[in-house]
Write a structure and sequence with these properties.
alpha/beta; Rossmann fold; eight-stranded mixed sheet; 319 residues; globular
Length: 319
Amino acid sequence: MPSIKELSKREELLTGGHRACAGCAATIIVRQVLLAAGKDVVVGCSTGCLEVVTTIFPYTAWKVPFIHNAFENVASTVSGVESSYRSLKRQGKITRDMRFIAFGGDGGTYDIGLQALSGAAERGHRMLYICYDNEAYMNTGIQRSSATPIGAATSTSPAGDKIPGKTQYHKDMTKIMAAHRIPYVAQASPSHWNDLVKKVEKALAKDGPSFINIISPCHRGWRYPMEDTIEMARLAVETCFWPLYECDEGTWAITYTPKEKLPLSEFTERQGRFAYLKDHPEVYKSGQDEIDRRWLEIQALAGIGNLCVAPCEEAGDSN
């Protein structure tokens, strides 16, 4: 993996001057991904924050070939381009070794674009799909998505005296993609750039589909000071709200383990979207219990510990 000194010497393939909010994690993520990928890539992007702020006609911030399409079909579009490339390469009309990356937000990945993504994975296209997960439909007014965590207030899951924000847990999209049994699946965070870069390099080296889910804090929707974006991403990792792991050719591994797992409150109490949780401790507890359960599940998949230690021991005693 390249050092940060080496990466700093590479050309920036997403230019400045785009219209992203100050402190936007999505553009930070793109810069890290493209520094790892290099120039021989074709990028597709679903409708959403990232597309809107980087390609306002007639301008573009992308210094690589870029395709914008509808909210729901970036995986279909990029899989079609990848198929055309393979055909042209077989015919000898293209000699460059190219890679293909699709970007989508959580709305375009977890919800609206899930069918296209699942189809592309099942067909086995050699492409990397990256979800920048800011946990709501931020581009259209901060509506809840299936990536929005329990207890979070959005414009369509408002927190008040009766309803404490969203009442459902967030969908585990990374494990859904792992269930497709594609060559490579991972979770990453812009706060851990070295882990993210290494995972992008691994994914692009695979001869088949790959998927990386990247936490993308949004100060507008999460309601924290804009300068704290990377700190929010770090706290998501340190609380195991967003554990860093991978499933490489069916082998699960945790790629970062916090020295001391922080309580979920270290993450939630710094965000305005969770302000009502102080009046609903049962919702906070439910969220903490679910995060703990998912962390144990990942550890079990990685061969560390046992997801059902107490029940298993009791069952053993009864036999």
